[in-house]
Amino acid sequence: MKQINGGVCAAKGFKASGVHCGIRKNKTKKDLALIMSEKKAAAASVYTTNLVKGAPITVTKNNIADGYAQAVICNSGNANTCNANGIEIAEEMCALLGEKLGIDATDVIVASTGVIGQPLDIEPIANGIPALVDGLKTDGCEDAATAIMTTDTVEKIISYSFEIGGKECKIGGIAKGSGMIHPNMATMLVFVTTDVAISPAMLQKALSEDVKSSFNMVSVDGDTSTNDMVSVLANGMAGNEEITAEGADFDEFCKALNAVTTYLCRMIAGDGEGATKLLECIVTGAATKETAVTVSKSVICSSLFKAAMFGADANWGRVLCAIGYSGADVDVTKIDVAFKSNAGEIVVCVDGSGVEFSEEKAKEILVEKEIQVLINLKSGDYDATAWGCDLTYDYVKINGDYRT
Question: What is the pLDDT of residue 186?
């Protein structure tokens, strides 16, 4: 597998674009994105488990019930959630785009992100769709990635090439997500494209399984969004024999998909609202997979631990505290904890008790931009990794006046 350029346009037959249509007042910010496949593609999605869901999720579920789609349209600046006419607006977005592209409205995946509870006017979207379609190009990934951003500070783009059955295949993705991130299925908005030939059922199987170890393991602030969606389009233009069952080809595809999703997970966590550091909690030696997952997420979600990382304070007691209230069945007298970064590694806890360590060396390790928290439960062979970020003053500033 090799990292390549192109993002969602890396795979054969995909183009993308992004424009400012007027949803956002700031005319320098793009607010409408489009991804288009030359051919109808197998489609799969996973969605937020929040009972309050954005209207686009309902429409997208209906549209891809047959397992296929050909385009993705997404606006930023307004979530189209908790609106009386939300479904109508989301369906109209699909209809307008379908008409312009010459495809069925039900072959469109629609998504929205931004402020919840504010009416979304269809007029700027309708006015912007012609330019959006006319702007489609094979190197348009960055425009699309920029157009779906809200409080993100960087575009989140990745793509890889790999082989299946002797055929070169490509896969790429874009994501948005910085705050309101604590998923229970996927996270924020993520769009993945590939030219692999794979049936809708196997594509859905791959995605549903993947999110358990990727997007479900990310947390920035403990808030599950109303609009979380991960969607994958696979148009089959690589020419491999269609994957219709588990086997070596399916495994290769899953590996490539996970490379994309894991990369985007790290980017999302590292770009958390106000964040200065990416935190990666790696748990090993767990008695069960569930225990490893529970422990890693509990530590990543701890506000006290996140604040300590912001201050580069090796307060390992907060790690044990988070493990203790996680609900996981662990032997606290066996737990080892260490902190690691590009500046080195330092052990701070052995068998559930503190050990002498250099505070100066710990500080050097924890001022780095990427920090690993290494936890060994010494009770089994299972492991899990979760991603998050530090908790800073700026998180409160950003969210104190997000709507106004």
Answer: 44
Which of 113, 72, 114 shows the shortest CA–CA distance to 231? Answer: 72
What's the topology of domain 278-400? Answer: Ubiquitin-like (UB roll) (3.10.20)
**Per-residue DSSP letters for 293-308?**
HHHHHHHHH-HHHHHH
The first and second tokens of residue 224, run together, are 């599950």
Mode of pairing for the β-strands spanning 278-286 and 370-376: parallel
Instruction: Please tell me the distance from the alpha carbon of residue 392 to that of residue 265, in angstroms, as a whole number.
Output: 20
Residue 203, number of CB atoms within 10 A of its CB: 24
* Spatial CB neighbours of 383, under 8 Å, sequence gap ≥ 6: 282, 283, 284, 285, 286, 292
The position carrying tokens 């495809």 is: 103
- 2-270: in CATH 3.60.70.12: yes
Residue 45 falls in which region: left (phi positive, over 0), alpha (psi -120 to 50) or beta:
beta
Any idea where the domains of the chain sit in the sequence? Answer: 2-270, 278-400
CA distance 245 to 253: 12
Q: Give me the amino acid identity at 43.
A: A
404 is catalytic: no
Reported confidence tier of residue 403, pLDDT bands at 50, 70, 90: low
- CB-based contacts of 8, cutoff 8 Å, min separation 6: 14, 16, 35, 141, 144, 145, 157, 159, 172, 173, 174, 191, 192, 193
* Cα 361 from Cα 79, distance rounded (Å): 45
How crowded is residue 180: how many other Cβ atoms within 10 Å of its Cβ?
26
Amino acid at 290: E
Catalytic residue among 113, 146, 187, 193: 187
Cβ atoms < 10 Å from Cβ of 86:
21
Q: Please write the tens of the pLDDT for every residue from 198-244.
A: 999 999 999 999 999 998 888 776 666 777 899 999 999 999 999 99
2-270 shares its CATH topology with 278-400: no
pTM, to two decimals: 0.87
What sign for the dihedral angle of Cα 17, 132, 194, 150?
positive
